[in-house]
Amino acid sequence: MSVMPKKKSTFDRYTWIVTELVIGIAALGYGLFGIIKTPTSTNYTYIVLVCTGSILLLMAIIQIIIMRKKKVNIFCSKCGEKIKKADDFCPKCGEKIG
Ligand SMILES: [Zn+2]
Questions:
Q1: Is the sign of the CA dihedral 7, 12, 18, 23 positive or negative?
Q2: Which residue range forms the structural domain that includes residue 61?
Q3: Which of 16, 46, 48, 68 is 20 to 30 A removed from 27 (C-alpha atoms)?
Q4: Is there a domain that residue 3 lies in?
Q5: Ion ligand 1 — residues with CB under 5 Å?
Q6: Residue 63 within a domain
Q7: Distance 82 CA to ligand 1 centre (A)
């Protein structure tokens, strides 16, 4: 029995976001194109495509925002050491943060 690594790699997350963006844009574009092309008849396939595409795009955007928030780093003003948000003092030189 092999043990799967618990930590998700950044590559997997990026691949997932890109997949969501591509499928989302494709579904949204195709759905909107279909609705514009046939405005008189209600085609639920296109409406479903637009909804699915919007949700996928929204999910991808939310994931990007979460990833960007997590990536924000604070650096010590004195020595330039990377500091975790929880730290009050620089672990390298002891400079107070904030
Ligand atoms: Zn420092």
A1: negative
A2: 10-72
A3: 68
A4: no
A5: 76, 78-79, 81, 90, 92-93, 95
A6: yes
A7: 8
Q: Look at the chain and report how many structural domains it folds into.
A: 1
Between the CA of residue 45 and those of 37, 48, 97, what are the distances in Å?
A: 13, 5, 55
pLDDT for the residue 87: 76
Determine the pLDDT at residue 84: 79
60-70: per-residue pLDDT in tens? Answer: 999 888 887 76
28-37's contacts with Cβ under 8 Å and 24+ in sequence apart are 28/53, 28/54, 28/57, 29/53
Q: Do the beta carbons of residue 53 and residue 34 sit within 8 Å?
A: no
Residue 31 falls inside a structural domain: yes
| Ligand 1 centroid – CA 87 distance (Å) | 11
